[in-house]
Each structure stands twice: as C-alpha cells, then as structure tokens.
Design brief:
The complex is a heterodimer.
Chain A lengths: L1 H27 L11 H13 L2 H4 L6 H26 L11 H27 L10 H27 L8 H10 L5 H25 L7 H10 L30 H9 L5 H5 L1 H4 L6 H20 L9 E2 L6 E2 H5 L6 H5 L6 H16 L4 H13 L29 E4 L1 H6 L1 H16 L4 E2 L10 H5 L3 H17 L4 E4 L2 H10 L8 E4 H10 L15 E3 L13 H11 L4 E2 L26 H10 L5 E4 L2 H13 L7 E4 H8 L2
Parallel strand pairs in A: 1-2, 3-4, 3-5, 5-6, 7-8, 7-9, 9-10
Helix pairs in contact in A: 1-8, 2-9, 4-5, 5-6, 6-7, 6-8, 9-10, 10-13, 19-27, 23-24, 24-27, 25-26
Chain B lengths: L1 E5 L2 E3 L5 E2 L6 E2 L5 E3 L1 H17 L2 E7 L5 H10 L3 E5 L9 H18 L2 E7 L10 H9 L2 E13 L4 E8 L2 E8 L2 E5 L11 H9 L3 E3 L1 H4 L36 H14 L6
Parallel strand pairs in B: 1-6, 1-8, 6-7, 7-13, 8-12, 9-12
Antiparallel strand pairs in B: 2-5, 3-4, 9-10, 10-11
Helix pairs in contact in B: 2-5, 3-4
Classes of the chains: A mainly alpha, B alpha/beta.
Chain lengths: 653, 270
C-alpha cells in the first residue's frame, strides 16, 4: 500500500509542477520574437560566470550575496539528492539513497549543513536587520526559507534514523551520524521505523510543496534565472530595438504581448532582491519609479492578462494605467533617467531600461501622451533639430573668436561633432573651446559641420519618440556619408553613444571617440605639452557620466586624464564607477520638470561630502546639473565644475 | 456640419533675414512652418469636432509645397484638406486672400453646411490680422476676433458663445452661426500627432482647387485683386529710448519710475 500511495502522490505532484511550468512557459510565448540564441559559447560563458560564479550576486558591496552563493552551491549538490528522492518516491522498490556513490554522501551532508546555516542567516537578517530598500519581511520569503529549513531537518532526521537503525553507512555522513548518536541512540528499533517513515514523508511533503510553490512565488527565479542569464544581451544594453514604421504596425509596448518573450522572462526571473531600487536615482529621491516594481507589474500583468490573450480575448488589466499591481503609471515611466544602474546590479541580468522606453514609445507614438513640456521640446527637435528651437545658423557662434575649419572630405581626419550643448549652451561652449584648443595643440586634423550639424537624437530615442529619432538618424547618416566622415570626436557622451551604438543599427559603422578618450591617447603618446599641476584645482572629485561609464565602459579614461594633469588621482565619491549615481538629466529628463527632492542636488550633496574644490565631469548634461545643484546648495562660490577638457586645457603649456 | 480651419504656411520668421541691399526677404533655406496662431485654430477645430461631431476641413491658399503643412493637419486629425493653389492667386494681399478663401468656404458650403470658420489671430509674416475679418465680412458671418475660449455651441439654436480677450478684461459674447472666430494662442494647448496618424497622413492628398475649379475673376484675386502693394521691406531703425533715472540700482525703484512715466504719457491708465 505504502508503495502505491507514494507513487501516486509523487506522480501527481510532479505532474502538477510540470503543468504550472507549462502554463507559465506558454505565457512567455505570447511575447514577440527576438533572437537571443546565437553565440552559444559566450552565452554559456555568461551562465558559468554569472550563475555558477554568482558574480553579480556577490559584487557591488552586497555582502549577503555570499550567503546566496553558499545557498546556491549547496542546492547544486542537494539537487542530486533530491532528484534521487523524487525517483525514490516514484519507484520506491527500485531506487534508494544508498544507490548513490558514498563519495557523494559527504558532499550532500556538507551542502545540507551549509544550506541550513544560510537559511538561518537569511531569516535572522530579515528579522533583525532588514535592508532598507526592500520589503524583506515578505511572507513569500519566510515560507520558502521555512520550507528549505524544514527540508534540511527532515533530511538529517531521516538519515540519522536510518543510521541509528543500521540501514545506512555512517562513515561518510558525520552530521547525520552525530544526530543519530545524540538523539536516537536510545530509541527502540520499532520506533525508529516509525521515525524513518515520518521523516521520509516530511521530506516528501516539504519537497513536493516547495516544488509546487516555486512557479507561484518570487522563487521562480530558481527555474528561470539560469536561462535568463543565458539569453541575456551579449553587449551592453546601451541601445533600443528599432521600430519598423509601416502602416498598420503598433508602436511601442502598451499591451503585455507586445514585449519580447525575453522581456517577459525577465519579469519571471526577478528575485525581488531590490538592488535595482537601491541604486535607482529616481527611487532614491522619492519618485514613484521603482524599477523592481516595474518588472513585478509586468509579471503581474502577464499573469492576469495572459489567459485572456490565450483565448483571443481583450486584456482586462491595462499595462500602462493608474498604477497598482500589474499596471505601470505614466508618472513612473517618465521618471526614468535611463542611467542603467538597475541593469548594472541586477544579479539575473534583467534589462529594465528598454522596457521603460518601450512603454514610453507607446505613450508618445500611439497616444501622443507626454508631459506638457515635452511637446515644445519635440517640436523644437523636429523643426530646428535642437532642444531649444534655436536658429540652426547659431550653431557656429561658439567659435566666433577662433578659427575653425569646416570638415572637408579627404582632407580632414576627424569630425568634431560639437553637439547641441557644445554649440548653443553658454557654459558648454567653453568646453567646446577647450576641446578645440587641445585638438590644435595635439596636432589633430579636425573640422566641424557648422550650421549643417544636426542633433543626434539621443533624447528623442530615450523619450520614446522613435519615429522622429528614426528620421533624424536617417538625415544625419546622409550628411555623414555624403561628407565621407569616418572618424568622429564627440563632446557629449550622449552623442557618443548614439553615433556609436544607435547608428550602428542603421548599418553605419563609425569610429566614434569621446573627447576624454582622445585626450588620454594624446597624453599617453606624449603629444600634449602639459604643465602637471599647472592649474590650481584643489581637491578634484570625479563624477562618472552614465552614458560613458555604464553604457560604454569608459571608467578609467577620465581618471587617467585627471591624474596626468593634476599629478594625483581624483577623489572618488561613495557611489562611483559602475555604481555611480546619475546627475538626473539622462533619458530626456533634462527637458522635463522634476518634482520633489532633486536628483542633481542629491548627487551634489554626495560630492560635497568629499570637500572638493573642483568637481570634474565629462558630459554637458552632468555639467549643467552639477552647476545647478551647486547653486541650489549654495556651494557654487566654493566649488567649481569643470569638464575634463577644461582641466587639460588649463594645464596646457 | 463643417468646421473650417484656415491655415497659412509661413517662413519661419525667426530664421528670415532681410537683404540689406534689396530690402526683400532672404528665403533661401528657410524652413516653412504652419503659422503658429493657425496651429491653435486647427487645434480648436479638432476639439470642436470631438465635442460636437463636426467634420473638420482645413483650407490653405499657397504654393504647391503647402501640401506638407496640410498633411500635418491631417496627421493631427483634420478630415479633409483643401489646397487653393494657382499662379493667379499669387501676390495677394489680405483683400484678395480673403476673397479666395471665402469663395472656397462657399464652395465647401454647397455640399455641407458650414457652422464655424476658425482662423488664427494673425500670421507671423504679414501680421495684419485682416484675413479672418475679411472672410466674415464677405460671407456675412458673425465676426468674433481675439477669442481665447469657446464657451458653448448650440447647434439647435444656431448660436455660439465665446470669450474675447480684450485689454485688461474679458468679454463673453454670443453670436449667431455661422461664425468666423479668430483665436489667440491661449485658447488651447496643442496636441502631438500619433505615428499611425502621421503614416496615414503621408499617404493622404490634399484636394487641389486651382482657379479653373474656383472660376474667380482675375481682377479680384492675386496681385491684380490686391488693394495694397509692397514697395519696400525694411527693419525700422529704432531711436534709442529715453533713459529714466540714470544710475539707479534698485529694480523696485526703476519699475516705479517707469510706471509713473508710462502713466504720464497715457500709455498706461488706471
């Protein structure tokens, strides 16, 4: 009788689990196709690195990530024991634990002890000192931790009873043996039989419950985390998928089935660790955006609407709506600076930013819904190809007092793409002048497009106005190819990223170099005559531009330049490099009003803690945001903001 | 029932320079835009369409490239666009322009009753603000200028109630339909075209009415039908203004003095 009951229960539970997984998997298939299968090798490498190496889990100063690493690896070994157990439940006559090689016993024992410890630490942490950035004391977490702990208790109970009864070799199971000798040594043989049966069933029930609970909890990441890392983007997520502007197409994502299957898998994989929110400049300044909840809402929306799509019915819950579970509010979508901090720290490689931009696209392109100030911005961009709607002929005004040559095909090597800020903004014009001075000093052959230069379109793309971005890009590409331009120096990291990474999607491969990179090369080649420490800059604190650092991995370049010029390393802020905190202007936020605590003020306050005399930036957005922030904090008389180029230009002999 | 919006394609005047020698406008490379006031007229037309179920037709007199502007109007939601284009219409002043436009409105009215004609307050190139009133006079419509709000439209009683913005005050006026209203920018905030609408507009075509179709007497239209002629365009030299209170630093004091002086000269009054 015993045999049949366990076989039936196990079979039913396993089938139930498979059914749940199948249902979830079917919902993924609602998503649009996207090719994430090519390059098997690098993908496998990512899995080894990020999953088995748990790189993103232990990185970025999250010390409890080590606890997860221990739990993860323990489970890798317990997977063997538990797979055996499932088969044992299904076929009690033919499979038993003793069939495993004895060498595995010790490993499984150690893994069990470590898992139990890790679970206790995780529980204690949640109870005693929960992290501020997440609802750590969620029922979900305690249920799963409790189940794991109970599973371990049952494991030791079962094997200790078996050892006490003499049914199992004790040599390689020191912990179970210890339990047997301390707790079960006086227990009668018949009672031990009851113990074995009781612990076996406890183990069975907990394991099957755990299995069936997984697909319905945040612990679904145990199932989807590995494939999600496998299918992660092989390049940095610094661009957006292009849209095909054909009549009848739907643009952006306003309905859950318009996401790609990978977007949907991302939502399944969220572990709710809260690192994205912990690093998000919007969340940190009290905005309604919380990247973790955006991902959660996508999942909730999919689960709610999925069955309706399955039956070819209309969805019942709007994806973009008033907020609330399963629905993302417009305010949330407009709060994102696209700084990419969320994606940088996500242990399961979720790509938050493209989803937010996709939903913005729906608002802008399908519904023409956006904050009022963007209307003027969009019109200016379309009519004058610059954010302020300034007359294009003013693009050359920055160079009124110097001699600048126009780019000539075949004669000029580099195009200096001045950018809208560099050309129109009074403060950034000084940076343009500094760059031209350095280029001349370094003997670079360069020229400009002058009034023919157009905006690269970065903000349009990030704000979801892909239609206009697409046109601007095509116009730009025509100019660049007509003039035979191959090499471009940019002043702005946003132009840099757009020309380099966005335009590549249009088949245009340019050699784009950010000015800091070019300057660094010149210095390294000994082509810039520098007076080390020629300028009195005091304590120089460095701020990373998101589009240079996180988007393009250029962290060392500005640092090397600063130390070459000042003779010492720049001072780092508490949040720097990959974890740098955005200035607040990216993703088109530059052109929008900001409510509540301002991101730039938060960042300036962080910089002021380091007692700087100079804050060094390499982006015109950051420059503006820092200067504004210093004014707001009334520190502008003590601290100056300079671009890397300005620092170098001051140090030129 | 029709709401007809009159729009004009104008050179982006902020980018136009006057040739100092010939005194004419340098139009080379200057982009054309919809006259900014007319964009608000169009928006109001679209709002009336949404609220009262009118059909919105946008009309424009201009060279063939005006079609770009009309397509933009279609992308924003206009149901139909009519382009009045013929060499014979060229060189028109406000008198001749209002003649062609009002004849076109009459022609549209033959098929479907016209309820409201909306114009922008004025154009940014001519700045006369005469075409709207010209149309109203020629068609015998109620003439409502400087409108910053349409309060109500009563289609049964054929009445419209609008708010006019006058200097220092507002005026609520009720008038009979059909009416011509000339709107201010404050009347509404503009909408942005959706991509599906833009794509639809790209394939659309404005109905072209030349003078063969219109059949207007050549003496009433274009240069020949114009009562005024441009002799010279120039930027007036501004004599330096009167300086009040030399060496003053306190802004409050300066403002006080300025207001006193303006009142003395009856520029301002209480």
């Amino acid at each position: 009788m015993f045999i049949y009951i366990s076989t039936i229960i196990f079979a039913v539970a396993i089938l139930l689990f498979c059914w749940s997984c199948y249902k979830r998997f079917r919902l993924l298939m609602l998503g649009k196709s996207v090719d994430r299968f090519k390059d098997f090798g690098p993908r496998l490498k990512n899995v080894i690195f990020y999953v088995f190496g748990q790189r993103c889990t232990v990185n970025h100063g999250y010390r409890f990530g080590w606890n997860h690493l221990v739990l993860f690896w323990s489970f890798m070994f317990l997977l063997i024991a538990n797979t055996e157990f499932l088969f044992e439940g299904l076929f009690p006559d033919s499979v038993s634990f003793s069939m495993l090689p004895v060498s595995l016993y010790i490993l499984i024992e150690i893994a069990s002890v470590l898992a139990l410890l890790a679970v206790c630490i995780a529980m204690l942490r949640r109870l005693a000192f929960p992290p501020s950035y997440i609802e750590a004391r969620s029922m979900d977490a305690f249920v799963i931790l409790g189940l794991i702990a109970l599973l371990m208790v049952a494991f030791f109970g079962l094997h200790a009873s078996e050892i006490a009864k003499g049914e199992l070799e004790a040599t390689f199971m020191p912990v179970s043996n210890f339990v047997a000798s301390t707790l079960f040594s006086d227990v009668k043989q018949e009672t031990l039989n009851d113990y074995i049966e009781a612990f076996w069933w406890l183990h069975a029930i907990v394991l099957l419950a755990f299995l069936n609970y997984l697909p319905y909890s945040k612990h679904m990441h145990i199932l989807t985390g590995i494939p999600n890392v496998f299918f992660k983007s092989l390049t940095k997520v610094n661009t957006q998928i292009r849209e095909d502007f054909k009549k009848g197409n739907v643009f952006g994502v306003g309905q859950i089935n318009l996401f790609t299957w990978k977007d949907l898998m991302d939502s399944y994989s969220c572990t709710e660790c809260g690192r994205c929110s912990d690093n998000c400049p919007a969340t940190n300044t009290g905005k309604s955006l919380n990247p973790r909840l955006v991902i959660h809402d996508i999942k909730a929306n999919l689960l709610k609407n999925g069955p309706f799509f399955d039956n070819k019915k209309a969805p019942v819950l709007p994806l973009i709506g008033k907020g609330g579970e399963g629905s993302v509010s417009e305010e949330v979508l407009w709060s994102c600076t696209t700084c990419g901090a969320c994606m940088e720290v996500c242990p399961v490689s979720i790509e938050h930013v493209p989803k937010i931009v996709d939903m913005r696209r729906n608002l802008v392109e399908m519904n023409a819904k956006m904050p009022g100030e963007l209307l003027t911005f969009f019109e200016s961009m379309e009519q004058r190809s610059n954010p302020w709607g300034i007359v294009p002929s003013d693009r050359v005004k920055w160079a009124t007092d110097i001699t600048v040559k126009p780019f000539e095909a075949g004669k000029t090597e580099y195009l200096f793409y001045v950018g809208c800020f560099g050309a129109f903004d009074a403060r950034s014009r000084k940076v343009s002048l500094a760059i031209s001075k350095i280029l001349d000093a370094g003997g670079i052959s360069w020229g400009i497009l002058g009034k023919d230069e157009l905006c690269c379109g970065d903000s349009m793309r990030r704000l979801g106005n892909e239609f206009v971005f697409d046109r601007m890009t095509k116009d730009n590409i025509k100019i660049l190819t007509d003039k035979g331009i191959k090499k471009i120096i940019t002043q702005c990291p946003h132009c840099f990223n757009t020309l380099k990474n966005d335009y590549r999607q249009y088949g245009l491969e340019l050699e784009v170099i950010h000015h800091t990179e070019l300057i660094n090369n010149l210095i390294k080649a000994g082509k810039l005559p520098l007076n080390v420490n020629g300028a009195d800059l005091g304590n120089v604190v460095i701020h990373d531009s998101c589009y240079l650092g996180r988007y393009n991995g250029l962290y060392d370049v500005p640092r090397e330049v600063i130390s070459s010029v000042t003779g010492r390393a720049a001072t780092e802020m508490d949040r720097c490099l990959e974890k740098s905190f955005c200035c607040g202007a990216g993703g088109g936020r530059m052109w929008m009003e900001e409510e509540g605590k301002r991101i730039n003020v938060t960042r300036v306050e962080e910089a002021l803690k380091k007692d700087p005399k100079t804050v060094c930036v390499s982006c015109p957005y950051c420059l503006t945001m820092f200067e504004d922030g210093l004014k707001s904090t009334k520190a502008d008389d003590k601290v100056q903001v300079l671009d890397v180029a300005e620092i170098v230009s001051m140090g030129l002999k | 029932m029709l709401v007809i919006t009159c729009v004009k394609q104008v050179p982006d005047t902020t980018q136009v320079r006057v040739d100092p020698v010939t005194g004419t406008l340098i139009r080379d490379g200057v982009p054309f835009i919809i006259n900014p006031y007319d964009t608000h007229a169009l928006e109001e037309g679209l709002r009336l369409k949404e609220k009262y179920g009118f059909r919105t037709v946008v009309i424009s007199m201009g060279p063939p490239n005006t079609e770009v502007t009309l397509k933009k109007a279609i992308a924003l939601g206009a149901d139909e666009a009519v382009l009045l284009s013929d060499r014979a219409f060229g060189g028109a002043d406000t008198l001749a322009t209002s003649q062609v436009l009002s004849e076109a409105i009459k022609k549209l009215g033959e098929k479907e009753e016209v309820a409201i004609v909306i114009c922008g307050r004025q154009t940014i190139d001519g700045d006369t603000a005469q075409v709207g009133p010209g149309i109203a006079t020629r068609l015998g419509y109620s003439q409502l200028t400087l409108v910053d709000s349409i309060e109500s439209v009563d289609l049964k009683a054929k009445k419209i109630r609008v708010r006019r913005k006058l200097e220092g005050r507002h005026e609520i006026v009720e008038a009979k339909l059909p009416a011509m209203i000339a709107v201010l920018k404050e009347i509404n905030s503009l909408r942005y075209p959706t991509v599906p609408m833009r794509l639809m507009a790209e394939d659309s075509k404005a109905t072209l009415w030349d003078n063969k179709i219109m059949g207007l007497q050549e003496t009433t239209i274009g240069l020949k039908g114009s009562a005024t002629q441009v002799r010279k365009i120039f930027s007036p030299q501004r004599a330096s203004g009167e300086i009040i209170g030399e060496g003053l630093k306190d802004p409050k004091e300066v403002s006080r003095l300025l207001i006193d002086r303006l009142m003395e000269k009856h520029v301002l009054s209480l």
